[in-house]
Write a structure and sequence with these properties.
single chain; 277 residues; Purple Acid Phosphatase, chain A, domain 2; 2 domains; five-stranded mixed beta sheet; globular
C-alpha cells in the first residue's frame, strides 16, 4: 500500500501541477490533501478546481485548513473598517476570486481516517488534533505531542507549519508533509510525503521537487494578485522568494502599532521587510 500526503498548496497552481505529475508516476493507492489549498497565493480557483477534479476522478481526499476558514468567514455580513479590510486583504481577494462560493470549502472535513493493512488508523488533519492552527513543528516537545495527536493513531499526517518532518512518537508515526506550494524551511523546493507499507510497518519519506519557479512568480503579476490584494502581498512574495514565513512575525510586531494609528499598514510592511533585505 502506498499513500501520498500533500498540504499547504496556497493557490500555487504550477507547484501543484508539479506534485500531481510526480504522483501520477508514483501511482499511490490514496492521496490526501491536508488543507490550505487556497489563499496566500495567486491562483486559488485553479487549485481548488484541480483538487476537486482529482477527488472525483482519482479519489483524492481533501481536508480543510485555517486558510479555507479565513475565506469562509467573508461570507458573513460585517461592517468593515479600512484597517479590517487591509488586514484581511489576502483572504478577501481569494473570496472574490472564488466568486464567494464557500460552500465547497465548508464541506471539507477537519480530518479524514482510513485503515491500514493491520486495521490500524491512518489519520490526516491540517495542523493537529488541537485545531487547525496548532501545528506540530520540528521543535515541538514530547510533552505537547500527546494532546496534539489524541487519540493516537498508527499514522498522523499533518501540515500547517510549511516545515516537513517525520517523527516517531510512542506508537504513532507523525508525518508533516511540509508545503506543496510555499515552503518555510529555507528550501524553495516544494514537498509532499510518501508513505509505503512494508513488512508490517509504515515507512515515510519527504519528497522535495524542483518546479518552474519563474513561471510561478509570473502568476503573482499576471493574475492581478500583486496589485489587487493589498500591502500584505509583499510579505507573501518575500515568503515565496526566500522560503521563510514572515506574516506571523510581522503581525506580532506591528498589530498594536497599526491599531494605535502609529504606522500605516503599507509602511509597516516596508519597514519590516527592510530588516531582511
Amino acid at each position: 500500500m502506498k499513500i501520498a500526503i500533500l498540504t499547504d498548496i496556497h493557490a500555487q497552481f504550477i507547484a501543484l501541477q508539479t506534485v500531481a505529475a510526480h504522483l501520477e508516476a508514483w501511482r499511490p493507492d490514496a492521496v490526501f490533501v491536508a488543507g490550505d489549498t487556497v489563499n496566500r497565493g495567486p491562483r486559488p480557483m485553479e487549485c481548488l478546481r484541480f483538487v476537486q477534479d482529482k477527488a472525483r476522478t482519482m479519489n483524492w481526499q481533501i481536508v480543510r485548513g485555517n486558510h479555507e476558514d479565513y475565506v469562509i468567514s467573508h461570507a458573513q455580513p460585517r461592517i468593515w473598517t479600512d484597517r479590517d479590510r487591509e488586514l484581511n486583504s489576502l483572504s478577501l481577494w481569494t473570496y472574490h476570486q472564488l466568486n464567494g462560493q464557500v460552500a465547497e470549502l465548508e464541506a471539507m472535513p477537519s480530518h479524514i481516517s482510513m485503515s491500514d493493512p493491520m486495521g490500524d488508523e491512518v489519520r490526516v488533519t491540517h495542523a493537529s488534533m488541537c485545531g487547525i492552527r496548532h501545528g506540530i513543528y520540528p521543535e515541538s516537545s514530547d510533552e505537547e505531542l500527546p494532546e496534539k495527536i489524541a487519540p493516537p493513531p498508527r499514522v498522523l499526517g499533518v501540515g500547517h507549519t510549511h516545515r516537513p518532518l517525520i517523527r516517531q512518537f510512542n506508537d504513532t508515526l507523525i508525518v508533516n508533509a511540509g508545503s506543496a506550494g510555499l515552503p518555510f524551511d529555507g528550501d524553495r523546493r516544494i514537498s509532499y510525503a510518501q508513505l509505503v507499507w512494508q513488512k508490517g510497518q509504515w515507512q515515510a519519506e519527504i519528497m522535495r521537487l524542483d518546479y518552474d519557479y519563474q513561471a510561478a512568480e509570473k502568476d503573482f503579476y499576471e493574475t492581478g494578485y500583486i496589485l489587487e490584494a493589498g500591502p500584505l502581498v509583499k510579505l507573501v512574495l518575500y515568503e515565496f522568494h526566500y522560503a521563510r514565513g514572515r506574516l506571523a512575525s510581522w503581525s506580532q510586531t506591528y498589530d498594536k502599532r497599526i491599531a494605535a494609528g502609529e504606522i500605516t499598514m503599507s509602511a509597516s510592511v516596508d519597514e519590516f521587510l527592510a530588516k531582511f533585505m
